[in-house]
Specification:
This protein has 11 helices and no strands. The chain is mainly alpha-helical. It has one domain: Hypothetical protein af1432 (Orthogonal Bundle). The protein binds fe (ii) ion (FE2) (2 copies).
């Protein structure tokens, strides 16, 4: 997709997506859109519309059961891994990205597809757009879980608006590392599987942080 996404397209997408989700998931989706717009303005204003669209589409398959996810994988030609099977929350990012290509071709932009694909686990070599959707999904205003509230506060209390870009990037790196740590601590304490992409994303961010001056 080469043309810039318009407000009208986003408005139609907001309506279509909201109609397909439960009120709670629709509200979260709209809050992620708001948050990613806020983050984009700080880091890459030129990507705001693209990331808004990615936010609106990120959880379109979240409410499907594991059985439905597995059937959808089959239908879409996705071969799930054992890791997906034992960490079923990872399915929806994969199926959503694939479904966008089929059902929302106007939004099948590479940046949208990759931001949606990696919004749950992250992975090594995350692009800025992927990082911003990942963080927006963690700290959007609909999140009341204490870790999310703490991370939201950590990011905005640092007053990123007053920072230069280098300082903002360091803050983003620091807050992302913290979010991964909290996520992995939760998974460990519940005895659940940690996706290897999550571990790789965390390790890479730690290395990135260590190389900051
Ligand atoms: Fe999600
Ligand atoms: Fe989400």
């Amino acid at each position: 997709m080469k043309k810039q996404i318009t407000e009208e397209q986003l408005q139609n997408l907001r309506k279509t997506v909201s109609e397909q989700l439960s009120p709670k998931r629709a509200y979260h989706t709209l809050c992620v859109e708001q948050m990613v717009a806020r983050l984009s303005e700080l880091f890459c204003p030129e990507k705001t519309m693209t990331l808004r669209a990615a936010a609106l589409l990120h959880d379109i398959t979240k409410e499907k059961s594991t059985k439905e996810q597995e059937a959808l994988c089959k239908e879409l030609g996705i071969v799930p891994t054992l890791e997906n099977h034992f960490s079923p929350k990872t399915y929806h990012a994969i199926t959503a990205a694939s479904l966008i290509e089929r059902e929302y071709p106007d939004f099948a932009d590479e940046k949208i597809l990759s931001a949606v694909r990696w919004h749950t686990t992250g992975h090594a070599g995350m692009t800025l757009a992927e990082k911003l959707l990942y963080l927006a999904d963690y700290i959007d205003e609909s999140r009341e879980y204490e870790n999310c509230v703490a991370l939201r506060k950590e990011f905005f209390d640092a007053n990123p608006e007053s920072m230069n870009m280098e300082e903002r990037e360091k803050l983003l790196c620091r807050v992302l590392i913290h979010s991964y740590r909290l996520t992995m601590e939760d998974l460990l304490s519940e005895g659940r599987l940690i996706a290897k992409d999550t571990v790789e994303a965390y390790n890479e961010l730690l290395i990135e942080q260590a190389t900051h001056r």
